[in-house]
Write a structure and sequence with these properties.
Blueprint: H1 5-8, H2 21-32, E1 39-44, H3 50-62, H4 76-82, E2 89-93, H5 100-109, E3 120-125, H6 132-143, E4 149-155, H7 163-166, E5 170-174, H8 179-193, H9 199-209, H10 213-226, H11 233-239, H12 245-257, H13 260-270, H14 275-291, H15 299-317, H16 322-336, H17 342-371, H18 381-392, H19 394-403, E6 404-410, E7 413-418, H20 422-430, H21 432-442, E8 448-452, H22 457-500, H23 507-529, H24 533-549, H25 551-558, E9 575-576
Parallel strand pairs: 1-4, 1-5, 2-3, 3-4, 7-8, 8-9
Antiparallel strand pairs: 6-7
Helix pairs in contact: 3-4, 5-6, 8-9, 9-10, 9-11, 12-14, 12-16, 13-16, 14-15, 14-16, 15-16, 18-19, 18-21, 19-20, 22-23, 22-24
């Protein structure tokens, strides 16, 4: 007789319990150490192993070799427990027997001793369905049962249980079974049944089971029948009313390509499926790609796609049109790819700022070049000649630079002026052969030097003093002649005025005329005093300072104390002036 896979492959011991290692370890240790509680509470998702664990725990308590975590499976108690026919294991469904009368009947049965085993075990499934009155009637018995009575309560909603019940039991929480463990268990079942399968098909089944192993095994049993003994992804998806996973990948590729025409065409194919299931499949597919680090997607794309899909789920819950919601979802996913991340925007702004700075700096350099004309420096023949002297002898170069002034170079002749002191002149005279040798190497073997002589400062000062004295004598003679003529003229005019106007001249007129003459005489006296020897000496110094500040005198000052260059160079080819 055929037996469904969920019952056929139901775990018979804690080692076969899938995905509940913490529960298995705790109960096994309690059995082996004989530390058994009066009541246990198993809570968790449907199909997570609560009822199976309760039956395993009851069998382990009643085994002939027990209590033990590994029942022998051969004794009468184990065999009857596996066949759900043990007389001392009483199972009660609280969903159908939830009234206080049902609890009273159960309490009466606890007063009797076990028939063939050491314990009488009561398994109450869906215990949260009991009424308030039933819970209150059950409290005393649950807290202080007889030593041979054990209670195992199971529920999917422990929050509905009164705190008084929770405080009287050891609570074990069963977690949802991971998808990988479900897939592994389904593959193990198919291998034992010799049924071929595709891994993608098992992923779809495990995903649809949502953490419930019993639901997944039931779907596997159904898919075996639907596919006629060959479990493949396409037919399993069709059986579950889901879109083929290949089509889901195709939808995402269209979104990545931003193919709006492709979206419009694929919407017709998706019209026969529920929008809610499509969105769930897209979300799960993106999750798998995220965990597998698909290079086609980045974190920002996952985040934006998830937002769009979440908003689509909200719209569907509000009763929106399925087709329109699906279309808007796909187009929004395409548009979300046009958004730039904060890092991209910051990089663009930074690059623009750098380009602007570089552009401004180039313009500034260009403006500088336009404002500041390029200064072209050209070396004279004398500069080249002087550099060669420095290369030959630095001390000679320094002496030549401070003792010689370059004038011109033409017709293969170097025109210079010498103004060195006696020490420099002696040094240059001793080095005359070297100087001429460098000259010929710099220019050619016929090159020669022409030296000019500069007057010294003392001669110039004497000439200037003579000029000043001559000018002074001339000015003094002119002033004396002018004073004589002025005195004679004033005296004659005064006599005439006195003779001609003796009668009509009054005192006021005479005083005015006299005051004028007196003022002229004072001016003459001042002019005469200014020409004394002291003033003459001061004027000579002032004139000499003016000459020193002039360009001609500056040149003579730079070339003061010069000697004749014939004393410097002994070469007969040097011409002297």
């Amino acid at each position: 007789m055929y037996q469904v896979l969920s019952l056929k492959y139901r775990p018979k011991n804690f080692d076969e319990l899938i995905g509940q290692e913490a529960v298995s370890r705790s109960l096994s240790n309690a059995l082996d150490s004989k530390r058994l509680a009066n009541a246990y509470l198993f809570s968790g998702l449907r199909g997570s192993g609560k009822t199976s664990s309760a039956r395993i725990l009851a069998k382990s308590m009643l085994c002939k070799n027990g209590p033990t975590s590994h029942p022998c499976e051969v004794c009468d108690s184990c065999k009857m427990a596996n066949e759900n026919a043990h007389i001392d294991i009483i199972e009660m469904d609280a969903a159908s027997r939830r009234k206080i009368d049902d609890i009273r009947e159960l309490i009466e049965r606890t007063k009797t001793y076990p028939s063939i085993s050491r314990y009488k075990v009561f398994i109450i499934d869906e215990v949260h369905m009991l009424t308030k009155e039933a819970f209150n009637a059950f409290l005393k018995t649950l807290e202080e049962p007889l030593e041979h009575i054990k209670f195992i309560l199971a529920t999917t909603d422990p929050l509905k249980l009164p705190a008084t019940i929770l405080s009287r039991t050891q609570h074990f929480r069963f977690k949802p079974i991971s998808q990988n463990l479900v897939i592994s268990h389904l593959a193990n079942i198919l291998n034992k049944e010799n049924i071929p399968f595709e891994d993608e098909a098992l992923k779809i089944i495990a995903r649809s089971g949502e953490g419930s192993l019993r639901d997944s095994i039931t779907l596997l049993d159904q898919s075996i029948s639907f596919t006629n003994g060959s479990v493949n992804a396409k037919e399993v998806a069709s059986m579950l009313g889901l879109v083929d996973p290949v089509k889901i990948d195709e939808i995402l590729n269209i979104v990545l390509k931003r193919d709006r025409e492709g979206v419009v065409s694929i919407l017709d194919e998706l019209s026969s499926y529920e929008a809610d299931s499509i969105i769930d499949q897209l979300t799960l597919n993106l999750k798998d790609k995220f965990l597998s680090k698909d290079p086609k997607f980045n974190v920002f794309m996952y985040e934006r796609f998830f937002r769009v899909l979440s908003e689509a789920k909200t719209m569907l819950n509000m009763g929106s049109d399925n087709g329109f919601t699906m279309a808007m979802t796909l187009f929004l996913m395409i548009e979300s790819m046009n958004l730039k991340s904060i890092d991209d925007i910051m990089n663009e702004v930074s690059n623009k700022e750098q380009d602007s700075i570089l552009k401004d700096s180039k313009n500034l350099e260009k403006d500088k070049k336009d404002l500041i004309p390029e200064i072209k420096t050209t070396k004279t023949p004398y500069d080249e000649y002087l550099a060669n002297i420095y290369d030959r002898n630095y001390e000679l170069g320094e002496c030549f630079k401070r003792s010689v002034k370059f004038n011109d170079f033409k017709d293969n002749t170097l025109f210079i002026t010498s103004f060195g002191d006696e020490v420099d002149s002696e040094f240059l005279r001793k080095s005359s052969k070297v100087i001429m040798e460098i000259l010929r190497k710099t220019f050619n073997k016929d090159s020669k030097i022409k030296i000019s002589k500069l007057e010294n400062e003392q001669n110039l000062q004497n000439k200037n003093s003579k000029t000043i004295n001559q000018n002074y004598n001339i000015n003094k003679a002119n002033i004396e002649n002018f004073s004589k003529d002025l005195s004679i003229e004033k005296e004659n005019n005064l006599n005439k005025d006195l003779q001609g106007n003796d009668d009509g001249l009054n005192n006021s007129d005479f005083d005015d005329e006299f005051n004028k003459d007196l003022a002229n005489l004072k001016k003459f006296s001042k002019l005469k005093n200014s020409l004394n020897s002291q003033n003459l000496e001061e004027k000579n110094k002032s004139l000499l300072n003016e000459l020193k500040n002039s360009n001609n005198f500056k040149e003579s000052e730079e070339t003061k104390n010069l000697k004749e260059l014939t004393r410097l160079f002994g070469d007969p080819k040097i011409e002297e002036n």
